[in-house]
Amino acid sequence: MYVLSAIVSLTLLGLFLGLLLGIAGKYLKVESSPIVDELEALLPGSQCGQCGFPGCRPAAEALADGNAPATMCPPGGSALAEQIAALLGLDLDLSDVKEPELLVARVSEDTCTGCTRCFKVCPTDAIVGAPKQIHAVVADACIACKKCVEVCPTECLQMHPIEVTLRNWRWAKPLNVPVQPMGTGSNAIC
User: Fold this and answer.
1) CA angle 147-149-152, nearest 5°?
2) What span, in angstroms and rounded, lies between the C-alpha atoms of 151 and 57?
3) In the structure, what pLDDT confidence band is assigned to residue 187 with cuts at 50, 70 and 90?
4) What is the DSSP string of 54-115?
5) Averaged over 139-143, what is the pLDDT?
6) Hey, what's the torsion of the CAs at 170, 156, 141, 74, to 10 degrees?
7) Are 111 and 96 in contact (CB under 8 A)?
8) pLDDT > 70 in the chain, percent
9) Are 85 and 92 in contact (CB under 8 A)?
10) Nearest to 90 by CA among 57, 68, 61
11) What is the arithmetic mean of pLDDT over 46-55?
12) Checking phi first, is residue 76 left (phi over 0); if not, alpha (psi -120 to 50) or beta?
């Protein structure tokens, strides 16, 4: 009899508190700015901190408030800066922005002791391994934030350029190519 009354009273208490939380969630909800949501969707989402903010959400809020330049995200490069400037309606000078060098971390198996410091700081979980075992880097997940290199006590992690393969090859953008108007020059159609 006592067990049944305890079960019923706890069930009613749980239902009451759940209903109370549901009502509070509906009426006390904090609306976020749609521009901040759009900016956060544009940013890489890796929470690497290379921009000087603890994550992509605070960086998006700073961009929306005008407290950060559109060129603040090093992994995004000029392509992301152009998208941010277009979204915010800003004039953008890309003369100081350099394209990020495509790097990836690599582990030297000879000196890795398996201390696990590197994969504790990796924002994208690109480093795999176990304590007291040699670690490895998943190149597709590495964003070259260099946090792992900074904390490695044996300096077994180093940044290397990404090897160009058929899978990751990209056509280079042409440098200043002059554009001729249609109907002029030697290739004009008569």
Assistant:
1) 110
2) 25
3) low
4) SSHHHHHHHHHHT-S-TT--TTTHHHHHHHHHHHHT-----SS--PPP-EEEEE-TTT----
5) 86
6) -70
7) no
8) 88
9) yes
10) 68
11) 86
12) alpha
CA distance 91 to 94: 10
Record the tokens describing residue 114, joined without a space.
């398996």
Owner of token pair 């939380």 = 21
Q: Is 158 helix (H, G, I), strand (E, B) or coil?
A: strand
* Nearest in space to 74 (alpha carbons), one of 110, 48, 40, 35: 48
Rounded alpha-carbon distances, angstroms, from residue 48 to 27, 117, 165, 185: 34, 16, 26, 51
Residue-range domains of the chain with CATH? 34-88 (1.10.15), 103-161 (3.30.70.20)
**Residue at token pair 């900074």:** 150
Q: With beta carbons less than 8 A apart as the criterion, state whether 46 and 124 touch.
A: yes
